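Re: adenosine monophosphate structure - here you go.
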Amino acid sequence: MKILVVNAGSSSLKYQLFDMDKGEVIAKGNCERIGVDGAVTHKRPGKEDYRASVALASHDDAIALVLKLLTDPELGVIADMSEIGAVGHRVAHGGEKLRKSGILKDEDIEYLYSIVNINPLHGPPAIKGIEACRRIMKDIPQVGVFDTSFYGQIPDYAYTYPIPYEYYEKYRIRRYGFHGTSHRYVSGKAAEMLGRDLSELKIITCHIGNGSSISAIKNGVCIDTSMGFTPQEGLPMGTRSGSLDPSVIPFIMQNEGISAKEMDDVLNRKSGLLGVSGVSSDCREVIDAANAGNDRARLALDMLIHYTKKIIGSYVAEMNGVDVIVFTAGIGENDRWLRERITADMDALGVKIDCEINNTCPRGQATDLSAPDARVHTMVIPTDEEYMIALDTLSLVNA
Ligand code: AMP
């Protein structure tokens, strides 16, 4: 069966078409500048990429273009839209109700609309993508795969914030967690690499990229995660602050005379690696600056290492041990130096990597980095959220 995976953003729509019998991507691409002017990049393995400027007024236009390209006699990979068995949509937030991937019904879309207030950035474009596919691909099942659903079994004492309970009742303010599809994929892959069942393992997954989160997965159930009500909590990220003393926020607002919206902008777009280093949100550029002697760049990296260690340590305590630590996403997969620094001086916990393997393992390949005398496996596993979405979609339409 062929499964189309769609990831709709406010002005972009990424797609991948999987041939699930072969477990391969047969075409993928990105529609950009939707609602501005419009551009598309369409890729097929072994063939030249197709790039064009095409007017894209809406997400409906983008989906229509994707289907046109996929079925085009020259650029396409299928003869007809009916070859697509189902569409899997990446949806960041499923709220408290949508706790499992599922074929989307009218009431699910209504529910997604009802939680736009707690997911104002990612909610509306995801709904637009789903509605466009429903309109244009009428009988083809549309499946929602929610980043938050991996966190549906986090205990109440770990997801509740210590603020007046009425705010949870009134606004559903609680920890939801994000990047769940990535954490689910790499934890499953880690168990597979060890030839063991998830139900017998304690795993800490570190998704460290431009946005970063860490999850604790005990016996196949995620029991805690570092992101919270929004993807802002936890580690310092590219431009997001991560966790800080909440009183800092009104203090800055009062002293700088800025509004809640401006403060949100400071915390989301001007903080993290960028805010501390003053150089860049891109880890590579911050490392280059640190190597050239920039002390604030050094500080930003030391902070990322410090907070990562701190969260890993707290999850070891929560789970009463750990069997595997996994690194994934842009920084986790690629930055050998950072992996070495994060796992250094953790031998008391049984964590020890083989620096030679860490320095030479091929990029893009899942690898166990552990030293022979380590009690805990440390792995690097490339994440594949789209494939996870395709797998969920396939199993739902086959069921
Ligand atoms: P992501 O959000 O997962 O795409 O990750 C983006 C982050 O990964 C950026 O901070 C990049 O600097 C970082 N990154 C990507 N490739 C490398 C690399 N080869 N070495 C270090 N960092 C990298």
